[in-house]
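Following up on my earlier thread - several people asked me to post the actual chain instead of describing it. Fair enough. Here it is, all 273 residues.
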Amino acid sequence: MNKRLITIVASGFCLFDPAGSVFGQTREGQQLVAAELITDATNTQQPFTVGIRFAIQPEWYLYWKNPGDAGLPIEVRWDLPEGWRAGEVQFPVPSKFVHDEITAYGYKKEIVVLATIFPDRASKGPLKAQLDWLVCRESCLRGGTSVSLDVETESPQNRRQAMKLLEFFRSRLPGTQKESGLFFQEAQFSRNGEEWVLRIPIVGGNADKVKDFYPEILEGVVVDFKRITIHQKELRIAFTRQDNTIRTLRLRGLLVTADSAFEIEIPIHLSSQ
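Reply from S.P.:
Thanks for posting it. Predicted structure:
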């Protein structure tokens, strides 16, 4: 954890409550987060989709894979039958929460993250996963649980319910850069001491619809989230380097419009000036 994050946590926005740092997390008799595995698959002879559903108490929220200024992302550790493997966890487009000087990215009420499971026909068994999370309101509580799912014994009713949820949250996954119709001109940058400011012009038919950018985590870089802006079809992002040897960044994240979002990746070459 870097010094900036320690300061933010200590400031009161994201206080870790030792009394809540338990599995089976509750507050005032309420279970803050309930989690389960769901699928609409009927067999395990071919790749299939599994959803990890989180039901979250009102006003509380979980974090995206980049939590922002403070927080921890949802963590999934699979325990699969021998020879099976899981694809990368897919996160629906998050919301942005701003509190004073703090910016966070996450989910309220309900979220389903998805993964493709690639089975081995030579083995069978239930899917298991260990889940860990940080759930926040005025304060933050660590939580987690173990979940399991036996695809072969799921009831038709559960599969129908899972199908509806999976369809809905698939529709909330970000699109690809190709689908966006957006392109990026060469990045320009300025430097003031340790701070860098990138300016990246956005072109394409939907460029005027872009309203925000949610970055993924950049290793070795501390992003000033409150200063990420879209202005006159230009993305601006300010950051400082923790590793001064970094010369190339791969800027990944979501370009957000009023009704959709698209995953983008932009290589950035920093001069030595």
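The chain has two domains: 3-170, 177-269. That should answer part of your original question.
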